[in-house]
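Design request, tokens follow.
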């Protein structure tokens, strides 16, 4: 059966005109077929928690792109996927990492369709993917900047500020883990005070609380015995947007010169500071809950930190001769 969008591929001019390609059709979007709805549901059922939410968001982007072009996603061919990547790169101006992630979701959707017998083969095979740099584009705070941020948070009139910075920078929590933590998740395990954290894929882990972090959390919760640990200025659960605003305010108060402070910078700082402190890479990987040690190594390389460069070691070793 011919694809509804096959006409686009038969016209070389429209194929290369990405401005026209990005514009929505004046016709109403193509409706989802029952088969497509079932295929989408089957794919999303493989995920849980926040992973499902993020995957659904990325898949919705692709399906919306198809609908705007009157293209049935189950009738797409490899050239359509190539055009989708070009649209993300040249029209939406997404970063390579974002393009790669969103395309990976579309490719995973088609792999599931093949497994379920909906399609004979995946149109995402052999599609040219963008090159993603080995280094993480995110840079954390330096040691002095992190100390200044902790001081500003500790002295802030908002009791949740110190807990926010401590949970992100000293525990290495992801922002959704920190904002989703409740007072009921605090407890003790083998003599250690711990926080029960629901991570990626709804995996539950127990994170030990150093005394300074415990005091910061106690200050944030006060006399409350239930509800979220972190509250926004309105007294409701803090979300990632409110957390970002608080961090930018604290960075400005501390005189930290960064373009845009955001929560993931503190998780990045958690990893790099541990490595600077001499913690073994494997232990840092476990603490950060990275499934692959290469992810931890990306954080370290991205710093371009010269403090531990071998040149200094060599110069110190040869100091007697120089």
């Amino acid at each position: 059966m011919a694809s509804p969008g096959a006409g686009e591929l038969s016209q070389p001019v429209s194929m290369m005109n990405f401005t026209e390609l990005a514009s929505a059709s004046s016709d109403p979007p193509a409706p989802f077929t029952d088969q497509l709805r079932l295929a989408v549901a089957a794919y999303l059922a493989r995920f849980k928690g926040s992973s499902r939410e993020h995957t659904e968001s990325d898949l919705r982007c692709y399906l919306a792109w198809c609908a705007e072009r009157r293209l049935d996603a189950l009738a797409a061919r490899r050239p359509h996927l190539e055009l989708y990547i070009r649209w993300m790169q040249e029209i939406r101006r997404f970063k390579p990492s974002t393009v790669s992630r969103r395309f990976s979701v579309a490719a995973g959707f088609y792999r599931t369709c093949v497994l379920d017998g909906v399609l004979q083969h995946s149109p995402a095979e052999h599609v040219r993917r963008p090159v993603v740099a080995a280094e993480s584009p995110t840079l954390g705070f330096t040691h002095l900047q992190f100390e200044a941020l902790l001081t500003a948070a500790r002295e802030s009139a908002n009791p949740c500020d110190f807990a926010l910075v401590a949970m992100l920078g000293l525990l290495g929590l992801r922002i959704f883990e920190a904002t989703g933590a409740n007072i009921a998740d605090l407890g003790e395990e083998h003599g250690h005070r711990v926080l029960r954290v629901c991570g990626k894929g709804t995996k539950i882990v127990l994170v030990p609380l150093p005394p300074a972090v415990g005091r910061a959390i106690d200050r944030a919760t006060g006399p409350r015995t239930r509800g979220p640990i972190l509250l926004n200025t309105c007294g409701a659960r803090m979300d990632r947007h409110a957390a970002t605003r608080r961090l930018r305010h604290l960075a400005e108060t501390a005189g930290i010169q960064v373009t845009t402070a955001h929560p993931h910078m503190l998780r990045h700082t958690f990893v790099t500071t541990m490595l600077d402190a001499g913690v073994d890479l494997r232990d840092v990987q476990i603490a950060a809950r990275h499934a692959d040690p290469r992810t931890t190594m990306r954080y370290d390389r991205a710093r371009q930190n010269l403090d531990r460069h071998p040149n200094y070691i060599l110069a110190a070793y040869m100091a007697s001769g120089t």
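Comment from the thread starter after seeing the answer: thanks! Confidence is low (pLDDT under 50) at residues 1-29.
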